[in-house]
Structures are given as C-alpha cells and as structure tokens.
Write a structure and sequence with these properties.
With 174 residues, this protein is mainly alpha-helical. It is 71% helix and 0% strand. Helix 3 packs antiparallel against helix 6 and helix 5 packs parallel to helix 7.
Amino acid sequence: MNILSYKLASRIKQSNPQETSSIEIMQYALNIILNSLLIISTSFLIGWLTGSLADTAVSLFSFAILRFFSGGKHLKTATACNIFSILLCSSIPHLSFLIKDHLLIINGLCIVIMLLFAPNPDVNAQISIRWYPWMKAISVTLVALNFFIHSPVLGLAFSAQSLTVISKQGRNFL
C-alpha cells in the first residue's frame, strides 16, 4: 500500500504542484484511505462468498463506529491491522451464535469496560480532554443500545472493540 499511495501522491503532485499538499502528507492520507478500502472490500467479498454479507457489514461498521468514539490500541503495522480487521469482521457473523445465550452478560461487561477505560484515543489523535466525557457517553450508549437490539453480531463486535480500549492506568474513569 505504501508504494501505491506514494505513486498516487506523486502523480497528484505532478498534475497540480501549487494547490496540493506535500507528497508525504498525501501519501499518509492515501494510505489510510487505501487500507480502509482494502479492509472493507475484502470483508464484504468474504461476507458475500459465505452468505453473510449483511452481518459482515454490521460487524465492520459497528466495530468502526465504536472504535471512533472509544479509541483503542493499534497493531504495530498496517499489514497486521488489515489482516486482523479482515479476519475479525469476517469471522464475527459466523461465531456470533457462541454468545447468543450470554449476550446480556457480554453487553454488561462491555459497558463496564467502556466506563472504566474509554476513551483511549491514539496519542496522535490530538483530541482535547474536554471531549472525553462525550466520547465515553457515546461509547457507553452505543453498547447499551444492544440491550434493545439484542444482536449477537453487535455484541461480539463491541466486545472485540472493548478489549482494545483496556489500559493499565484506567485514566479515563469518570
């Protein structure tokens, strides 16, 4: 992806050198976009091939939305993130039956984790601490909605995301 994003950024820069950002900035942004597209398209393809496209979409987007508000740890490389995200979001629809009888407990544990540790944003995110209570409230609300929706797919996606926000210091307890 790095090579592709560099080539794209270079071509964009060549076509309009005055009105574009530096190649490095465009490459960084294109890397994020291309990696996201790879995860989404591959997960959708696997979901379609396995007959679980709708649940794969629910898994992917619910994980991403909760992650946006709650933050969480990152894997060391983009490749590891891509592989893990694709495997996770493609597997959740096929494993969600495992938690069906324990969904209320899973939802409750996820809420406790969000209350104790969310948000846990990336150090590069530069999010003002004044937004943390809102991010926590939204994270808890998203998880709590599954008490009404009662979706094992949502429960498993939320529990996977909840595990990424756990930190040793628990500094965001309100």
